[in-house]
Design goal:
It is built from 3 helices and 7 strands; from the N terminus they run E-H-H-E-E-E-E-E-E-H. The chain is of the alpha+beta class. It has one domain. A hairpin with a 5-residue loop joins strand 2 and strand 3. The radius of gyration is 19 Å and the shape is elongated.
């Protein structure tokens, strides 16, 4: 039986976010601009621009194809999958929930970013409510 605070199990499969992809493009374009708009020698400008381009290609591939899932299990705990295998996630109270995105701070793991367009509007709202209800 589920307690009132825990409620029913919740599952969401996160689709790739177009908002995050656009943000990555803007950030990398700004970094490329900064690479060339400085007083460094040309060779260092080119090396810096190459690093920015390689980083963008890596992030772009990840953002376009990454499959992520999050669920509130019957056991009364959050589980996150960055692929096919779920791992228990101890979500910290310092996590941030906004209408644009959710940033989950997870003990001993990197932050988990969920953009609002990774789910349909009602499912995103359900996730935000479930996270607020289950915060420690």
């Amino acid at each position: 039986m589920h307690t009132k605070k825990q409620g029913k199990p919740f599952f969401a499969e996160l689709k790739p976010s177009k908002k995050l992809l656009r943000l990555a493009i803007i950030i990398h374009l700004l970094a490329l601009t900064a690479s060339f708009a400085n007083a460094l020698p040309l060779i260092l400008k080119l090396v810096t621009a190459t690093f920015v381009a390689v980083n963008f290609m890596t992030i772009y591939k990840t953002l376009k194809s990454e499959t992520r899932k999050i669920k509130w299990s019957d056991k009364g705990q959050w589980e996150i999958a960055r692929g096919n295998e779920f791992d228990t996630a101890d979500i910290l109270a310092s996590s941030v929930l906004t209408t644009f995105c959710i940033v989950l701070h997870i003990r001993n793991q990197p932050p988990f970013l969920i953009a609002s367009d990774a789910l349909d509007e009602s499912r995103y709202r359900q996730l935000a409510v479930k996270l607020k209800m289950t915060q420690h």
